[in-house]
Specification:
single chain, Helix Hairpins, 2 domains
Length: 333
């Protein structure tokens, strides 16, 4: 819980310094020179920057020291837990061996009691010879001594195992107490000790580096957005200009087509009037050959001029369709 609080304080300090620097930049940009409030704010920013640097160094030192202590306590706690587990396993094995030894001791006690009963009862065949009875007694004594020796060995082994078991139980209790002490020390680790460790300082340095990198990336992102917006606006203005030019071209072509159509209609009227006049003159002056040839020549020239005007109209119409197709392509782009 202590590390996030320290980091939050550091972030608040950095954000405050950044806000003050931004305010100073705006004031300088607005005034164009440093006034007394600007110099005072600059001095305050410098003091804040030095204070943040000192705080960062202190946090790094404390984080390093506490990290070392924390790692040492964690290692001790881990080794204590491992030792407790090993002792528990050894204790279970010793308890199992002790139970086996007790069972074996009970069997040996029963065998010994049976042997003593056979020795003292005198029931070794009253009708047999003395040599046979002496041999039976010797064998019983040997068996008794063997059983007694084995019993003493088992008792010594059981005593040694019990002593080892008591020693292990004592070590287990000490390890458990040490483990509890380590847990208490780990929970009561002070915040200042954590702040003085090297790992904490490294984390603070990495945080500062990442924070400055994020500010740089944000600045680059803002610049990219501004460039994108400017490019978009320029593209829109270019499209507007193209559309305006297209409308102007269409208007000019439409005006030219209308003028050509009016001219064609007027020429047709003139041609019709000339034709009527020619027919009238031809009817009135059938004998005027030179005049007729001149009129035919005039009519032929007028027809040629009429065909030429029709060709111009068709060419302008084709040009209008091409311009409209090009405008459609530009609009799609």
């Amino acid at each position: 819980a202590f590390a996030p609080a320290a980091v939050a304080r550091l972030v608040q300090g950095l954000v405050g310094a950044q806000r003050r620097a931004h305010d100073l930049g705006q004031r300088l940009a607005a005034r164009g020179e440093l006034g007394e409030p600007g110099r005072a704010l600059l001095r305050e920013l410098l003091r804040e920057h030095r204070r943040l640097q000192d705080l960062n160094l202190q946090l790094q030192e404390q984080h390093h020291r506490v990290s070392l202590e924390l790692a040492e306590l964690q290692d001790k706690a881990s080794s204590a837990e491992t030792k407790v587990l090993e002792m528990g396993t050894t204790l279970e094995g010793l308890q199992w061996d002790s139970a086996k030894l007790r069972k074996r001791e009970g069997r040996l006690d029963r065998h010994l009691a049976e042997a003593l009963e056979q020795l003292t009862s005198g029931s070794y065949g009253s009708g047999s010879s003395g040599g046979f009875q002496g041999g039976q007694i010797t064998l019983s004594m040997q068996k008794f001594e063997m059983l007694n020796a084995e019993l003493e060995g088992n008792q010594d082994l059981a005593n040694s195992r019990m002593a080892e078991l008591e020693k292990l139980q004592l070590e287990l209790q000490q390890a458990v107490r040490g483990h509890e002490r380590l847990k208490v020390a780990l929970r009561s680790l002070p915040e200042e000790a954590v702040k003085e460790t090297l790992e904490y300082k490294v984390l603070q340095s990495q945080f500062s580096l990442l924070y400055h990198e994020s500010l740089q990336v944000k600045t680059q992102l803002d610049e990219a957005r501004a460039l994108l917006l400017a490019t978009k606006n320029s593209h829109l203005r270019h499209i507007e200009h193209m559309e305006s030019d297209e409308l102007g071209v269409q208007k000019r072509l439409r005006t030219e087509v209308i003028q050509l159509e009016d001219t064609l209609a007027q020429v047709r009227k003139e041609y019709e009037m000339l034709r009527i006049e020619f027919e009238q003159n031809l009817a009135a002056n059938e004998q005027a050959g030179p005049i007729n040839r001149e009129m035919r020549h005039l009519i032929s020239s007028l027809q040629n001029h009429n065909h030429q005007l029709k060709g111009d109209v068709q060419r302008y119409k084709r040009k209008l369709r091409e311009v409209q197709a090009e405008a459609g392509k530009l609009r799609l782009q």
